Amino acid sequence: MLKLPSFDQFIAEFDTVLRTLAAPATSARPHPDAKLDEAEMSDAEKTHAAGLMRVNHCGEVCAQALYQGQALTARDPAARDALRHAAQEEVEHLAWTQRRLGELGSHRSVFNPLWYAGSFVMGVTAGAIGDKWNLGFLAETERQVAAHLQSHLSQLPEQDEKSRAIVAQMEVDEMSHAELADSMGAATLPLPIQAAMKLSSKVMTGLSYRF
Protein backbone atom coordinates (compact mmCIF):
# COMPACT_ATOMS: atom_id res chain seq x y z
CA MET A 1 0.00 0.00 0.00
CA LEU A 2 1.37 3.42 -0.96
CA LYS A 3 2.00 5.91 1.83
CA LEU A 4 1.09 9.53 1.24
CA PRO A 5 3.94 12.00 1.78
CA SER A 6 3.95 14.06 4.99
CA PHE A 7 3.68 17.83 4.90
CA ASP A 8 7.43 18.16 5.51
CA GLN A 9 8.16 15.72 2.71
CA PHE A 10 5.81 17.62 0.41
CA ILE A 11 7.71 20.85 1.14
CA ALA A 12 11.02 19.09 0.47
CA GLU A 13 9.77 17.69 -2.84
CA PHE A 14 8.41 21.08 -3.88
CA ASP A 15 11.81 22.58 -3.08
CA THR A 16 13.35 20.05 -5.46
CA VAL A 17 11.03 21.28 -8.21
CA LEU A 18 12.01 24.91 -7.65
CA ARG A 19 15.74 24.15 -7.47
CA THR A 20 15.62 22.11 -10.67
CA LEU A 21 13.66 24.65 -12.71
CA ALA A 22 14.89 27.96 -11.31
CA ALA A 23 18.08 27.73 -9.24
CA PRO A 24 21.63 27.19 -10.52
CA ALA A 25 22.66 23.55 -10.06
CA THR A 26 25.94 22.66 -8.36
CA SER A 27 28.35 19.78 -8.88
CA ALA A 28 30.37 17.97 -6.20
CA ARG A 29 32.63 16.57 -8.91
CA PRO A 30 34.82 18.80 -11.08
CA HIS A 31 33.19 19.75 -14.37
CA PRO A 32 34.51 17.34 -17.04
CA ASP A 33 35.53 20.28 -19.25
CA ALA A 34 37.20 22.30 -16.48
CA LYS A 35 40.74 21.99 -17.88
CA LEU A 36 39.83 22.36 -21.54
CA ASP A 37 40.09 25.55 -23.56
CA GLU A 38 37.25 27.06 -25.53
CA ALA A 39 37.52 26.20 -29.23
CA GLU A 40 37.11 28.52 -32.17
CA MET A 41 33.69 27.83 -33.72
CA SER A 42 31.56 29.52 -36.33
CA ASP A 43 28.20 30.99 -35.33
CA ALA A 44 26.45 28.03 -36.94
CA GLU A 45 28.59 25.53 -35.02
CA LYS A 46 27.95 27.35 -31.74
CA THR A 47 24.22 27.38 -32.41
CA HIS A 48 24.23 23.67 -33.17
CA ALA A 49 26.32 22.81 -30.10
CA ALA A 50 24.04 24.94 -27.93
CA GLY A 51 20.97 23.20 -29.33
CA LEU A 52 22.39 19.80 -28.47
CA MET A 53 23.43 20.90 -24.99
CA ARG A 54 19.97 22.41 -24.44
CA VAL A 55 18.48 19.02 -25.28
CA ASN A 56 20.86 17.37 -22.82
CA HIS A 57 19.99 19.89 -20.11
CA CYS A 58 16.30 19.28 -20.75
CA GLY A 59 16.91 15.54 -20.42
CA GLU A 60 18.43 16.11 -16.99
CA VAL A 61 15.42 18.19 -15.94
CA CYS A 62 13.22 15.27 -16.99
CA ALA A 63 15.46 12.85 -15.09
CA GLN A 64 15.09 14.85 -11.88
CA ALA A 65 11.31 14.78 -12.19
CA LEU A 66 11.22 11.13 -13.19
CA TYR A 67 13.38 9.94 -10.29
CA GLN A 68 11.59 12.20 -7.85
CA GLY A 69 8.26 10.62 -8.81
CA GLN A 70 9.69 7.10 -8.78
CA ALA A 71 11.30 7.53 -5.36
CA LEU A 72 8.05 8.81 -3.89
CA THR A 73 6.18 5.65 -4.84
CA ALA A 74 8.99 3.06 -4.53
CA ARG A 75 8.26 0.47 -1.85
CA ASP A 76 11.73 -1.08 -1.43
CA PRO A 77 14.18 1.20 0.47
CA ALA A 78 17.05 -0.13 -1.67
CA ALA A 79 15.22 0.84 -4.85
CA ARG A 80 14.46 4.23 -3.37
CA ASP A 81 18.12 4.75 -2.47
CA ALA A 82 19.20 3.78 -5.99
CA LEU A 83 16.82 6.34 -7.43
CA ARG A 84 18.04 9.05 -5.05
CA HIS A 85 21.67 8.26 -5.97
CA ALA A 86 20.91 8.47 -9.68
CA ALA A 87 19.06 11.75 -9.14
CA GLN A 88 22.06 13.26 -7.35
CA GLU A 89 24.37 12.52 -10.27
CA GLU A 90 21.75 13.97 -12.61
CA VAL A 91 21.95 17.21 -10.58
CA GLU A 92 25.63 17.32 -11.46
CA HIS A 93 24.73 16.82 -15.10
CA LEU A 94 22.34 19.75 -14.76
CA ALA A 95 25.19 21.91 -13.47
CA TRP A 96 27.52 20.88 -16.28
CA THR A 97 25.01 21.50 -19.06
CA GLN A 98 23.75 24.75 -17.50
CA ARG A 99 27.21 26.25 -17.41
CA ARG A 100 28.02 25.04 -20.91
CA LEU A 101 24.88 26.65 -22.28
CA GLY A 102 25.96 29.95 -20.73
CA GLU A 103 29.42 29.62 -22.24
CA LEU A 104 27.84 29.07 -25.64
CA GLY A 105 25.71 32.18 -25.17
CA SER A 106 22.46 30.25 -25.13
CA HIS A 107 19.54 29.47 -22.83
CA ARG A 108 17.62 26.63 -21.23
CA SER A 109 14.50 25.25 -22.90
CA VAL A 110 11.33 27.29 -22.35
CA PHE A 111 9.45 23.97 -22.19
CA ASN A 112 11.29 22.69 -19.10
CA PRO A 113 8.30 23.13 -16.73
CA LEU A 114 6.12 21.12 -19.11
CA TRP A 115 8.68 18.32 -19.46
CA TYR A 116 9.17 18.27 -15.69
CA ALA A 117 5.45 17.83 -15.02
CA GLY A 118 5.07 15.05 -17.56
CA SER A 119 8.14 13.18 -16.34
CA PHE A 120 7.03 13.44 -12.72
CA VAL A 121 3.68 11.83 -13.54
CA MET A 122 5.46 9.06 -15.44
CA GLY A 123 7.77 8.46 -12.46
CA VAL A 124 4.93 8.28 -9.94
CA THR A 125 3.09 5.83 -12.20
CA ALA A 126 6.16 3.63 -12.70
CA GLY A 127 6.79 3.47 -8.97
CA ALA A 128 3.16 2.68 -8.18
CA ILE A 129 3.16 -0.35 -10.49
CA GLY A 130 5.90 -2.10 -8.50
CA ASP A 131 9.59 -1.95 -7.72
CA LYS A 132 10.84 -4.35 -10.40
CA TRP A 133 8.99 -2.31 -13.03
CA ASN A 134 10.15 0.89 -11.40
CA LEU A 135 13.76 -0.27 -11.74
CA GLY A 136 13.01 -1.50 -15.25
CA PHE A 137 11.81 1.96 -16.20
CA LEU A 138 15.00 3.43 -14.72
CA ALA A 139 17.19 0.98 -16.65
CA GLU A 140 15.42 1.53 -19.97
CA THR A 141 15.41 5.30 -19.54
CA GLU A 142 19.14 5.34 -18.88
CA ARG A 143 19.90 3.07 -21.83
CA GLN A 144 17.93 5.32 -24.16
CA VAL A 145 19.60 8.43 -22.75
CA ALA A 146 23.06 6.86 -23.16
CA ALA A 147 22.30 6.03 -26.80
CA HIS A 148 21.07 9.57 -27.28
CA LEU A 149 24.28 10.99 -25.79
CA GLN A 150 26.37 8.73 -28.01
CA SER A 151 24.61 10.19 -31.05
CA HIS A 152 25.42 13.69 -29.81
CA LEU A 153 29.11 12.83 -29.67
CA SER A 154 28.96 12.19 -33.40
CA GLN A 155 27.04 15.43 -34.04
CA LEU A 156 28.95 17.95 -31.94
CA PRO A 157 31.61 20.03 -33.74
CA GLU A 158 34.86 18.07 -33.70
CA GLN A 159 36.79 20.93 -32.11
CA ASP A 160 34.25 21.49 -29.31
CA GLU A 161 36.17 19.45 -26.77
CA LYS A 162 34.40 21.08 -23.80
CA SER A 163 30.92 19.95 -24.84
CA ARG A 164 32.23 16.56 -25.90
CA ALA A 165 33.90 15.97 -22.52
CA ILE A 166 30.65 16.73 -20.70
CA VAL A 167 28.56 14.48 -22.92
CA ALA A 168 31.08 11.62 -22.69
CA GLN A 169 31.06 11.65 -18.87
CA MET A 170 27.28 11.87 -18.80
CA GLU A 171 27.09 8.77 -20.99
CA VAL A 172 29.33 6.84 -18.58
CA ASP A 173 27.15 7.86 -15.63
CA GLU A 174 23.89 6.96 -17.36
CA MET A 175 25.11 3.49 -18.24
CA SER A 176 26.22 2.92 -14.64
CA HIS A 177 22.69 3.78 -13.48
CA ALA A 178 21.21 1.29 -15.93
CA GLU A 179 23.61 -1.42 -14.80
CA LEU A 180 22.78 -0.73 -11.13
CA ALA A 181 19.06 -1.07 -11.83
CA ASP A 182 19.64 -4.33 -13.72
CA SER A 183 21.69 -5.72 -10.84
CA MET A 184 18.81 -4.98 -8.47
CA GLY A 185 16.32 -7.03 -10.49
CA ALA A 186 14.91 -4.59 -12.99
CA ALA A 187 12.19 -6.03 -15.22
CA THR A 188 12.48 -5.72 -19.00
CA LEU A 189 9.81 -3.33 -20.21
CA PRO A 190 7.45 -4.51 -22.97
CA LEU A 191 8.46 -3.39 -26.46
CA PRO A 192 5.41 -1.09 -26.93
CA ILE A 193 6.39 0.83 -23.79
CA GLN A 194 9.98 1.13 -24.98
CA ALA A 195 8.70 2.44 -28.32
CA ALA A 196 6.42 4.95 -26.59
CA MET A 197 9.35 6.19 -24.52
CA LYS A 198 11.43 6.69 -27.67
CA LEU A 199 8.59 8.57 -29.36
CA SER A 200 8.09 10.94 -26.42
CA SER A 201 11.85 11.50 -26.30
CA LYS A 202 11.87 12.38 -29.99
CA VAL A 203 9.19 15.03 -29.48
CA MET A 204 11.02 16.49 -26.48
CA THR A 205 14.40 16.65 -28.20
CA GLY A 206 12.96 18.19 -31.37
CA LEU A 207 11.33 21.07 -29.50
CA SER A 208 14.11 21.59 -26.96
CA TYR A 209 16.79 21.82 -29.67
CA ARG A 210 15.07 24.94 -31.05
CA PHE A 211 13.41 26.47 -28.01
Secondary-structure content class: mainly alpha
**What is the fold named in CATH at topology level?**
Ferritin
The radius of gyration is: 17 Å
Main sheet? none
Low-confidence stretches: none
Q: Beta-strand percentage?
A: under 5%
Q: Can you count the beta strands?
A: 0
Order of helices and strands: HHHHHHH
Write up this protein.
This protein is an all-alpha fold and 211 residues long. The chain has one domain: Ferritin. 75% of the residues lie in helices and 0% in strands. It contains seven helices and no strands. The protein has helices spanning 7-21, 43-73, 77-103, 112-129, 131-155, 161-183, 191-210. Helix 2 (43-73) runs antiparallel to helix 5. The longest helix has 31 residues, at 43-73. It is globular, with a radius of gyration of 17 Å. The model has no long low-confidence stretch (mean pLDDT 86).
